[in-house]
Structure prediction request, 132 residues.
Amino acid sequence: MRVRPIADNVLLRLRPLPTQTDGGLYLPQNREVRRLEAREAEVVAVGPGHYRGCHHCGHTRVFVPTTVRPGDHVLVDAYAGDHWSPQLDKSVPRHNGSKANYDVLLDERAEWRVVREEEIHGILLREEAAAE
Prediction:
């Protein structure tokens, strides 16, 4: 199954919550505070954008393209968007030559969300890119 988001919808793969601190302490996964934290996610697919304005009111409609791109790492609210659970049969042989990447991308343990672009708090930048 392939998904192509429409309008300004964005398909995200949430990063798993850390289970251990840097010092080696295990973090409980059932704490309410941990579930309410903002989450990091990777953008998998994006829609082309949306129209702003109202043609019924006489305002001009302007097309606003989506600013995030596939591969971007973003920060999103813990309960933003809609949970999506892809039902994919990974046992079917793929003929595109990238089976390893396919298995990593479609990990059964991954959490998937479809969010509007306005629900994304920001794009996370790497340290060397942020210093420039």
